[in-house]
Write the structure tokens for this entry.
Amino acid sequence: MQDQIIHVLSIKGFAKEESLAVAVGLEVSEIVLIAQSLIEEGLLENSRIGMKLTEKGKRAAAKVLEDVRETTDVAALEAFYQAFTPINQDYKKSVSSWQIKTVGESAEPNDHEDAEYDQRVLTEMFKDHDSLKHLVATHLASCPLLRDYARRLEIAFAQVTAGHEQFVTGALIDSYHTVWFEFHEALIRLSGRDRATEAAAGRAD
């Protein structure tokens, strides 16, 4: 579980105990104990905005990815990335539609007062949710590190389905968009790519 926490922090940049607990599926009290151990090892440090990796911790995070690569089916990972790319493109368009409402040639911030519009956007946004779960199960069976993001996406999806719309794109919680972004970043790194190159190719923000 230490490796998982180190990985999550390497993606998030920083996080408080509560956020980490949600991300890795532990109780806050368990996170506190593990974090203290990692601090004593010089891998983590506290900051005003939460815990973050030290330089030693960043090297440990890189080692975690190296170890994961050794046990991951690289061909299956690449197949997943190729299948994920068009899904990601569609998802990003839906997020834009959720945030900015365009009517004709007029575009303005979505005030979420139009329930019919929001429902159409949500239907489009989550049309590939089940397909993505199937792709993860099919291609990422050898990579628990990435499979865990599917668990987090499922939790966020359940929250949205229950009517908690802050879990669509909320920035300070494990929203669907937050988890999706972190999943994509982890996928980019594990596949040996970098976000700048992917962004230049139109495959990342």
